Every structure is written in C-alpha cells, then in structure tokens.
Amino acid sequence: MSVGLVLTIFAICIAVMIIMIAKFNVNAVTSLLLVSIVLGLLLGTPPGEMEGVINGAFSSTIKSVAVVILLGCILGKMLEETGAAQAICTSAIKIVGKKNVIWAIGFSAFVLGIPVFSDTVTILLISIVSKLAVETGGTMMALGSALGVGAQITHALVPPTPGPLAAANALGVPMGQAIGWGLVVSFPSLITTILFCKYCCTQMVHPKDEYMKAKDDERLPSTTIAYMPIVIPLALIIISSVITNTMPEDSSIVGIASFIGSPITALIIGCMLAMILTGSEWNSKKVLNDWVDESMASAAMPLFVTGMGGTMAQFVKNAGVADKIAEAVVAAGLPSLLLPILLAVLIHVATGSTTLAVLTAANLTAPMLETLGISAVAAFLACAAGSIILKHGNSSAFWVACSMSNMSFTQGLIGIGGGCTVAGVTACIITFILNAVGVI
Q: From CA 287, how far away is CA 279, in angstroms rounded?
C-alpha cells in the first residue's frame, strides 16, 4: 500500500470521526470504536483478528490509568461538596485584594482545574465571581472568562485530570514529569490569559440575578485544609519522581518513594485528607457510598474514551501509518512539534472536547516519536497545549462559562475562545522554547 493511499485513508477516517461527533452528535466512544474498526480493515487487519486487537489495545491502554482516573474523580467530588473550592477562591481574594480580583479568580480556577472538571469549576465559583463583579464594578466578560479559561489550562496540561493523565500514559511520560512540566508551562499561560481577559474583555456585562442569592454566611473549611488534598498528592508524585531519577535503584529510599509517590497511593492520601473536609459526616453513607457512586459515573466516560483512543492508535501503529505521517512531516521540513499540536487543535476545534483532543492526539503521536525526533515530554506538552486552542460554541465548557457569566455568544467567543487561544498559543511557545534549548 502506497504512502499516499495510507495517508488518505487515515485522513478520511479522522474526518469521518470528527463529523460523526460534531455534526451528528454521535457519542465519542461509539465514534472512536466504529472508525477504528473501519480504519483497521482498510489498513489490512484480518477480520478474524479485529476483536483481539480491540480488546487487547483497550485493556492495555486503560490498565495504567483506570484507578487513577476514578480516584481523581472521587477527590474532585469531595472538593465540590465540602466547600473547599469556595475556600480556595476566598483565600486568593484576601491575598490579592478586590482591586486585583481577576487574578484571584484565575488562580483559583487554575488550582481547582487540576482535580475538578473545568465545567464544574465554573459552576462551583460562579456565585462568588458574580458577587465580586458587583462589589468591584467589574464586568463578567473579564471575570467569567478568567474563571472559565483558568480551569481549562490545568484541565488540559496537569494530571490527574483524565485528559493529560491518559495522554502522559500513552506517551510513556512518568506522572511526576507530566505534572512538573505541565505546571511549568501552565503558569505563563495563566498570566497571559489573565492579562488578555483584563485588557481585552472590557465590555460591561452584569451578572445574572440568580447567582447573587448564595448565602454569605456559609461555613467554609480553612484554607490550609482546603489546599491539602490537592497540593500534597502532587508534591508526593513530583518528589518521588525526583528521588527515583537521582538515587540508585536498589536504595530503600527509592522503594519507599516509589510507593508513596505513585499516582494511586498519592491520590488515596489526597482522598483521605479530603475526608477531613467532611467533618462529622466522614463515615456517613453519603460520603462513603453516594459520592463514590457519582464519581464512578463521572469516570466512565473518560475511561472509555481513553481505551477507544488506544484502540485506534493500535491499528495505526500496526499498519505503519504513524511512521509514514512522521516521515512526511520531516521530509516537508516542518517543525516536528507542529504535528501533535495540529492533531490536537483539529480534534478540539471539531469536537469541542479538550479531553478527547489531548488523549487522541497523544495516542496518534506516540508511535511517531522516534521518527519525529522529539521526546515524549515535548509531545505531551504539545498535545496538551493544542487541545485548548480555538474553543468555541461546540464545547460544553464554553457554553457553561458563557451562559452563567451572562455573556452573549460573540462576547464568549472573544473572552473564552480568545482566552483559551492565548493560553494554548503561550503553552505552545513555551514548549517550543524548552524543546529548542534541550530541556525537554
């Protein structure tokens, strides 16, 4: 099969998948499965081997991330239900003052976007942000955009959110490195985003009355306790990565660090710390059973999307498509990092899903790393950065932030779409720089 034919088949299958999701509202999992089967058959996989490849690729893809995704969802649920999210935002406001409230909002969303889905972050903080808009005379176009985009940045770049978690796993990036480099790239992106929201989103938009009715006397957990379930697991994973990469493998310290700093152990510790936030209800059915049930339902979608993305990637790998695409990019003289970025941008723009974009781009890029001549870390950051560029009306995160902030569609395109693009482009630039100087 010629290179041109292979690339044409691959491009058509990706286009069909995107059309199914974006135009006909076919579920992402179903679309990935059907397109993967068609792609496998067209690329020469014997029909009798199809089921084995699908089951094998699915199981091998999710086996390293399934428990971590579930624990991340449980941790996020606890932070949602206990008022920890509001406590984090309130503490940030006290530090920077109400004159600089947009920085507090952006930072709070940034922190909460690590364990909590970005849509949920907006829902959790919209009442606080709405009140601050009235108290400071600010516009919801700026504050609401900072809220929505701030959460999107870490939602795409920093595990244990399912998208970057699965992407790091697909590319073979150790979790400590994924978190560390994700944070390094995320901070400049947050700064440029807030500056964009502050100076480019100046049209006056008043908050909705319905979000001004939250109680002011709601009892919130202390700031230290609110941050602990997020900060301590991330610190354990990063410290473990540093120790295992700098000390002899046979050292007892390395063994202990590997256990305590493994994503599963670290997130279990985070969940246990979060139980402090529940107070006397820690042993209730609501906390120990109901919240876990709801978290499992939340984890199901990213788990299946991750597995199906791995299935498509396996068919691509088996047919040698990955090498042919990478060789074409290299032959054209294009920067190798452009390929994972463009794959992520294309999938994100068409489907509206940051999670689907980052993990699918990572799965497709993984077999190309050697030919492209880029590291797994660089590819991970490129996929994550591209997955937030050009967010628009087909994204649930866009509509949640836009509608709850009382913005018109046009204002949302400027504030949220523009803010996400600024964040993504900044992350791409930082990634290119880090790659050019040989740091990653």
A: 11
What the block records as the tokens of 296 is 């499992």
User: Locate tokens 């906390």: which residue?
Assistant: 287
Stated as kind and residue range, the H or E segment containing 59 is helix 50-62
DSSP code string of 168-198:
HHHHT--HHHHHHHHHHHHHHHHHHHHHHHH
Q: What is the pLDDT of residues 395-414, one digit of tens each?
A: 888 888 998 999 999 999 99
Give dist(CA 123, CA 19) in Å, integer: 29
CA–CA separation, 335 vs 319, rounded Å? 24
pTM for this model (two decimals): 0.84
Distance CA 190, CA 390 (A): 16
Q: Write down the pLDDT at residue 44.
A: 86
What is the spatial distance between Cα 104 and Cα 96, in angstroms, rounded to a whole number? 7
Would the pLDDT of 216 be above 60?
no
Tell me, what DSSP letter sits at residue 367?
A: G
**DSSP secondary structure letters along 282-351:** TTSHIIIIIHHHHHHHHHHHHHHHHHHHHHHHHHHHHHTHHHHHHHHHHHTT--TTHHHHHHHHHHHHHH
- The 10s digit of each residue's pLDDT in 32-60 is 899 989 989 998 899 999 999 999 989 98
CA distance 362 to 383: 6
Closest of 183, 303, 169, 281 to residue 231, by C-alpha? 183
Q: How many CA atoms lie within 13 A of 161 on its CB side?
A: 31
pLDDT band at 217, cuts 50/70/90? very low
306-337 pLDDT, tens digit each: 788 788 878 877 877 677 778 777 788 889 99
